[in-house]
Write a structure and sequence with these properties.
mainly beta; Jelly Rolls; elongated
Length: 198
């Protein structure tokens, strides 16, 4: 059986192909046009590609470290997220601030082996190591319990910025007015990262 295409069938296939190409081209053009800023008045207008806002995270030189800790000892890190709207009035970006825990020796008493309890109370489940974050557009001060958490990434906050924002993060060996000898001299280290959030 011989397969032959008639002129009408060829025209239909060619028409469908042309429609598909026009659709793809139209979507591509719409994508690029959405990044174009048009200015002008009356019968004349000029167009240029819009400049997208940029966000720069300035973490400074060091991570967040608490060494040879005792109850009440804390370390603070201040960092800045710089926002450049590139003249896009009302532009903003939503960011997420995360803590990557590299090392954390702080534990609750009931998680410490008996040789290292140093007289702590096993029924005490009070937070031993706390992180506080504030600044930017964060509502008040957020407190996160880091006791026993290690080798993980923790979301600290999300913020929508439309200008430069400064944040302060403090990690503290919290004073509980109970025996905390099991955590005396312990260490914590981590680093802060900032990511775009959808």
């Amino acid at each position: 059986m011989k397969f032959e295409m008639y002129k009408q069938e060829k025209n239909i296939i060619l028409g469908l192909l042309v429609c598909a190409l026009i659709t793809v081209f139209g979507y591509s053009l719409a994508y690029f046009v959405s990044g174009v800023k048009i200015t002008g008045s009356g019968g004349s207008a000029s167009g240029s590609t819009a400049k997208l806002p940029t966000v720069t995270y300035d973490a400074g030189d060091e991570g967040l470290t608490l060494s040879n800790a005792y109850p009440g000892k804390s370390e603070t890190k201040t960092f800045q997220v710089k926002f450049d709207s590139k003249d896009n009035v009302g532009a903003s970006e939503k960011i997420g601030i995360k803590l990557n825990i590299e090392s954390n020796e702080f534990k609750l008493c009931n998680a410490v082996d008996s040789a290292n309890k140093n007289g702590c109370d096993e029924s005490d489940t009070t937070s031993q190591l706390e992180l506080k974050i504030s600044g930017g557009g964060i509502d008040g001060e957020q407190i996160i319990d880091l006791t026993g958490k290690t080798g993980q990434s923790i979301s600290l906050a999300t913020d929508t910025i439309s200008a430069d924002a400064t944040y302060t993060v403090t990690v503290e060996f919290k004073e509980t007015d109970k025996n905390q000898g099991h955590n005396a001299g312990k260490n914590f280290s981590g680093s802060i990262t900032v990511e775009f959030v959808e």
